Amino acid sequence: MHFSTLTLAGLAASASAATFYVDNKCTFPLYLQSKHDASSTGVITLPAGKTNAFNTYIPGADVKQSSITVSRQPDLSSPLQAVYNTGSNPDRTYYDLSTIFGDPLKAEGFELLAGSASNGYSVSCKPRQSGDCPNTYSPSNPSGKNAVFNQGTNANLILQLCSSNGNSS
Description:
Layout lengths: L1 E5 L1 H6 L5 E6 L5 E7 L2 E2 L3 E3 L4 E5 L10 E6 L8 E9 L2 E8 L11 E5 L8 E3 L23 E4 L4 E5 L8
Parallel strand pairs: 2-13
Antiparallel strand pairs: 1-6, 2-6, 3-4, 3-5, 3-7, 7-8, 8-9, 9-12, 10-11, 10-13
């Protein structure tokens, strides 16, 4: 698993197949951990205004899922979690967001963007959302009804934290 910190200007230029971007638009640092099967990046500090790119091979359906955990705390307490994997029949990237263990950015909002606006479903939680975020695994939706989405294989995913618009595409 490889990761790097990018500036927003470099985001579009560095787009490649199966890349998961975490874009910190917050005014404070966040703490991330990427896991794939039994491997992990360890805790990464993502400074305010920076983007991390996790250039990782997304495995076929016979391999365990990958995830990115986001927290305001270095111990990763009360995290937001993004989960993704790729199926081989058909070739699709599956993804979801979970606030079951916490929603550290409830006041600021966040979005998970997939593909382009015309062919990917974006999951959004508006700033200061009343109740649980829709279309996520959450305390009021622990089974994840309407929370798992898919996109063509090798789709780039962008988790935008402290998003200002909170609108779904």
